[in-house]
Amino acid sequence: MFLLNTTADYRQPLDPRDAETLGAAAAEEVERHLSFRENHAPTPLVALPGLAREIGVAAIHVKDEGHRLGLGSFKALGGAYAVIRLVLEEAEQRLGRVVDMAELHSEEVRAIARGMTVACATDGNHGRSVAQGAQLVGARAAILVHTGVSNERVAAIARFGAEMIRVEGSYDDSVREAAWVAEAKGWTIVSDTSWPGYERIPGLVMQGYTALVREALKQMPEPPTHVFIQSGVGGIAAAVAGHLAIELGDLRPVFTVVDPARAACLFETARAGRPVTIAHGEPTVMAMLECYEPSLVAWRILSRAADAFMTVDEADATGIMNRLARPHSGDPAVVAGESGGVGLAAAVKAVADPAIRATLAIDQRSRIFVVNTEGATDPGKYEEITGLSPAAVAAKNPEGALI
Fold it and tell me: Which domain of life is it from (predicted)?
């Protein structure tokens, strides 16, 4: 399914709150924060010239977040960043002075962090980031996971010392349960989705994601003309669309938001012109995107900065995983998890459809940018789908394949 953005807010300036959250000054603060992280390095930008020639565009670039901060997904940028910001703010309030990031590991700050508990609901990747952030500062973490989260993903979060709480139902059920439990116990909820009255912390999570956009703009020979970004509740799509709108203004690329067909909450929200909750249906293999209710802050941004919305099917997602695992025409291999390659799957699907291609004005001069939002965060599932181990795929990369 495909539709253009026809909402009343389309192409209006970002809400001032969102422009501040995703603007240059905030993004520079994120970069400074990352400079204090021991294992930080910009993630690679991967060029796929063979696939670009095959589909008839000038360039395809993939920002490969499977390498981010040892967590294997872009979420490493958001949850941990928000946790650290919240600890520093609490320290400022308790100590009555400005507390710099450089003091994060001081005994004064760590003593304050030890008295804090952060909590969230997760499909896997966000919870891992929140748990890692809590471990870095010495705070406690309680992570709620729904019944669809694999044991492998639960174990990957638990290794950071988080308390794991299973919740019956879907991701959205776990979000509601996390908010209720956190309020009852006095914990700080660090969610990547927002609801009425709860916007600032999800904004900090999205703010963390601006780092990947700034890195990509520095790594690309030229800015992209078209961007396809996958969406769960909308946070990563909103962060990329919003920051590009601020940085590039009238020269910003054509931006398409991509949903799984079985969990198309942003697509249906765009169709309705207002946030809607969709019915739960058959589970999707795109587990990190299986969300049925959009983030209100993300929608506020996307209603202004997104140009189009589309969906991809199960076969699109698994097909692009296999294509990236078994590249040809000189392209490097990319380890993309079940949700990681969805933006690229949508780009290929859009270019193959003459009507969508024409509507988005894609031609042989177009430069497409996508984000591999996760590597093999569930290695067993990855091997089940591709028939290859993540290590075997990563070993295929030729010298100089990454920019």
Answer: Bacteria
